[in-house]
Each structure stands twice: as structure tokens, then as C-alpha cells.
Write a structure and sequence with these properties.
Order of helices and strands: HHHHHHHHHHHHH
Structural class: mainly alpha
Number of strands: 0
Helix content: over 70%
Oligomer: single chain
Number of helices: 13
Strand content: under 5%
Low-confidence stretches: none
Length: 223
């Protein structure tokens, strides 16, 4: 799709979502939907202003509305890279249907701050109600790799690959882990390149980092 067509489509969607608010001014979901689209457009200030306005209108009317809009505001800050502000919003979400998602977003916000220990706590809590959810297991695996716990990370990537053997990210990271643990790894990297070439190309720099790590460890063991 060319840029002109994308631009036209975005303008049409924006117009429709604004019209939805005009037609349903007492429905908080129309505000949430427009804010989610503004996040896609990277219009973070507009999305923040819209949700602040919506919270002013609906927060005292319904707990559910307050929770959904607060969660939406957390997403704005997370997408804008304002992780501390995002954390403050996600911590306020108490709605049971949203809580697992809020825990995952809290975890990702802490990951954005490189606080992997705290992130792991929230991911493991979210995983209690979604043990087979690949996206959560992927994030747990990322945290464990960052914390240097490769053996435990392997178990979580095994879960992801069991449910979806074609997941490029899981294949790539399982390959990294296999390198560190001295296990066969070539097959994982072949699959990663086959199933998600973009991710493979983006993360390839990690291979040389792991090779250096293995070399340093080997030199220490040889001494």
C-alpha cells in the first residue's frame, strides 16, 4: 500500500472514530478506541489529552470506565517511552478482566527500565491465569536471559515452541541459549531466519556478544 493510500485510510479511520464520539458522547469506549488509534499514529500528546478528558467525564460514573481509561493512559505513556508514568497508571488498574493485561504492561514498562527482576514478578503473576500464553512466556524468557538464567529461560521458550514451532523470536533465543549451554544450536537459527527474517537480522548482533561471553567463560575455566 502506497503512502497516499495509507494516509487517506488513516484520515478516514480518524474521522470515523471522532464521529463515534460525537454520536455516542456518553460511551467511554469511543474515547478509548480513538486513543488507541492515536497511539498507532504516534500522536501521544493528543491521546493523553483525550484520555484525561474522558477520565474527567467518566471516572466517577463507573469503575469499569475508570479502569479501561486508566489502562489506556498507561498504554500512551508506555508507547511514548515514559515508563515511570506508565507504571503509575497500570498500578491503578483493579478490574479483573484487565488485570492480567495490566500486569503484562507493568512488566514491559519495568523491562523498558531494564528492571528485569520486577518485570519477572509481574509476568509470573500474569502467567498464573494464562500458562500457555506464548506472548507471556516469550517475555519471561527475555527477562531470564537478561538475568543470566539460561536454563530456566530454555523451559519457557520450549513452551512457546511447543504451541508454535514457527515462532522466529523463540527459535532465535533458544538458539542463543543452546550456544551458551553448549548444545546444538544451528537448527534454531535456521528456523529463526526462515520464520522471521526481520527479527533474525535485527538481533544478529547478539550472536557475537554470546560468542564473546562463551570465550571469556572458556578462558576462565582453562585457567
Amino acid at each position: 500500500m502506497n503512502n497516499d493510500k495509507k494516509q487517506k485510510q488513516a484520515e478516514e479511520t480518524l474521522h470515523k472514530l471522532v464521529k463515534d464520539i460525537d454520536n455516542h458522547p456518553h460511551d467511554y469506549r469511543t474515547y478509548y478506541d480513538l486513543s488507541a488509534f492515536l497511539i498507532q499514529l504516534k500522536s501521544y500528546t493528543q491521546a493523553e489529552e483525550l484520555l484525561m478528558k474522558a477520565l474527567g467525564l467518566f471516572a466517577n460514573q463507573s469503575k469499569k470506565a475508570k479502569n479501561v481509561l486508566t489502562y489506556g493512559l498507561g498504554n500512551v505513556y508506555y508507547s511514548a517511552g515514559e515508563f515511570e508514568k506508565a507504571i503509575q497508571q497500570f498500578q491503578q488498574v483493579t478490574n479483573k478482566n484487565l488485570q492480567s493485561d495490566a500486569y503484562v504492561m507493568l512488566a514491559q514498562s519495568y523491562m523498558g527500565q531494564k528492571n528485569y527482576k520486577k518485570a519477572l514478578v509481574f509476568l509470573l503473576t500474569a502467567q498464573e491465569t494464562a500458562k500457555q500464553e506464548p506472548s507471556i512466556n516469550l517475555l519471561i524468557g527475555q527477562c531470564l536471559i537478561a538475568l543470566g538464567d539460561f536454563k530456566q529461560a530454555k523451559g519457557y521458550y520450549d513452551l512457546v515452541l511447543k504451541s508454535n514451532p514457527h515462532n522466529g523470536e523463540a527459535n532465535f533465543n533458544q538458539g542463543l541459549i543452546a550456544m551458551v549451554l553448549g548444545e546444538p544450536f544451528e537448527g534454531y537459527f535456521k528456523n529463526a531466519e526462515k520464520y522471521d527474517k526481520l527479527y533474525f537480522d535485527k538481533e544478529q548482533g547478539k550472536l557475537s556478544d554470546i560468542e564473546k561471553f562463551i570465550q571469556i567463560r572458556k578462558e576462565k575455566q582453562d585457567k
